[in-house]
Specification:
Blueprint lengths: L1 H5 L2 H4 L4 H11 L7 H11 L7 E7 L5 H12 L2 E4 L9 H15 L16 H14 L4 E6 L26 E8 L11 E5 L5 H17 L1 H10 L4 H12 L3 H12 L17 H16 L1 H17 L6 H8 L3 H10 L4 E5 L5 E5 L2 H10 L3 H13 L12
Helix pairs in contact: 3-5, 6-7, 8-9, 8-10, 12-13, 12-16, 13-15
């Protein structure tokens, strides 16, 4: 599917092929379960009383909403759009151009380019949906939209749906949309069904336990000795991790990775039942624990590099981080290696590796724990310094 998009040069420039393919690959690694969610979606797609409309999936950060949609893209090739504040893909224009271009390519519609007014409103998108319905017959057309809560578009009137999502859809067209549970989605639509992902849902906890089981199986050589050091059985380990995770998959990604790689052992926590409780507690204990080891090093190197990464609107190079932090590249390399589990690395065809924060929940934590305003200001000032005379010889006022 991604190859199909890349081979349509006039339209593919509107599609974040590289970003979305990378995201799908990384978020589906180790994917397990969620059959109860897939069934709920499929049941709605076949429900004669719900001929079209919006299926809204709500849940807490880290519960696996993005991974769920990524798996649907991987398995079924649905048209999709991932809003992500960490890569600054969150505007209505980005959504409309991406989805319209995908629909044209995916369903072979007779449009070689997008009209200039394609992003003014949802008119062109609605026209395309009507065309797709005529070509697809009785087959449902499913469009995935992730992280509605990360959308930022101040140009829209408050009465307009976020992303200019059409209020009414042709029969056979379904939007599957994810959002944080507490978020006001501001969607005024004709037909809507909600699916809630609860962290304490027995089906969710069953998937969590299966994720841990699969992780131990894949990394058995590393994991079994670690588990034995705590003096517990494998089953006790499974039960404890499941309970401490509070049903959160991002917690598992971090904690299990730390145990496997020897960053979290009996030396740091002598009783496995004293592991952090939930994702926020995990972030907080790790952050404050790293600061306590060497506060001077932490304040000089760790905090500024990580906070600039959390503030950046797109993946950045070490060269750019050096420019922002005024640190030598070797120090930035050290920070990246030390905090590698929190970062994603990618690379364009040519050039340096690019780094970004892996999950928005860590960015949320840094905003609350540290505050990112001064780092936002630092990026702005660095950019302004490049404009001759703008800061009047270096006067930042």
């Amino acid at each position: 599917m991604f190859q199909l998009f890349a081979e349509a040069p006039l339209l593919s420039r509107h599609i974040r092929v590289h970003e979305f393919q990378t995201l799908v690959n990384e978020r589906t690694q180790g994917f397990v379960g969620r059959e109860f969610v897939f069934k709920a979606i499929d049941d709605l797609l076949k429900d004669s009383k719900f001929p079209s409309g919006y299926i809204i999936i709500s849940g807490e950060p880290g519960i696996g909403k993005t991974a769920l949609l990524a798996q649907l893209v991987k398995q079924r090739g649905y048209v999709h759009h991932f809003n992500t504040v960490l890569q600054d893909i969150r505007s209505t224009d980005a959504f409309l151009t991406n989805i319209c271009a995908q629909l044209i390519i995916r369903y072979g519609l007779e449009h070689s380019t997008l009209p200039q007014d394609a992003t003014n409103n949802s008119t062109f998108l609605s026209e395309l949906l009507e065309e797709v319905v005529k070509k697809r017959g009785n087959q449902p057309i499913v469009i995935l939209v992730d992280a509605l809560d990360e959308v930022e578009d101040f140009r829209l009137h408050q009465d307009v749906n976020r992303l200019c999502l059409p209020p009414d859809l042709p029969d056979g067209v379904f939007f599957v949309v994810t959002k944080r549970e507490e978020f006001d989605d501001r969607l005024s639509v004709g037909r809507r069904k909600d699916i809630y992902l609860r962290d304490d849902d027995p089906r969710n906890l069953k998937d969590v336990r299966k994720f841990v089981e699969n992780f131990i199986k894949e990394y058995r050589t590393d994991m079994i000795p670690r588990i034995k050091e705590w003096g517990i059985t494998e089953d006790e380990f499974l039960t404890t991790i499941t309970e401490r995770s509070e049903g959160n998959f991002m917690y598992l990604v971090y904690v299990l990775g730390d145990i496997r790689d020897g960053r979290l052992t009996v030396v740091e926590i002598d009783n496995i039942r004293e592991l952090p409780q939930g994702l926020k507690d995990y972030y907080q204990r790790h952050w404050r624990g790293m600061r306590a080891v060497d506060q001077d090093r932490f304040d000089k190197y760790y905090e500024p590099v990580l906070c600039y990464l959390a503030t950046a609107k797109e993946p950045v190079t070490i060269t750019l981080l050096a420019e922002w932090t005024k640190l030598v590249p070797i120090r930035i390399h050290e920070v990246i290696e030390k905090w590698r589990q929190y970062l994603n690395q990618s690379k364009l065809e040519q050039g340096e590796p690019l780094y970004r924060i892996y999950h928005a929940s860590f960015q949320d934590f840094l905003k609350e724990e540290v505050g990112l305003v001064k780092y936002e200001d630092g990026i702005a000032v660095t950019a302004l310094r490049k404009i001759p005379g703008f800061l009047d010889g270096g006067d930042d006022r």
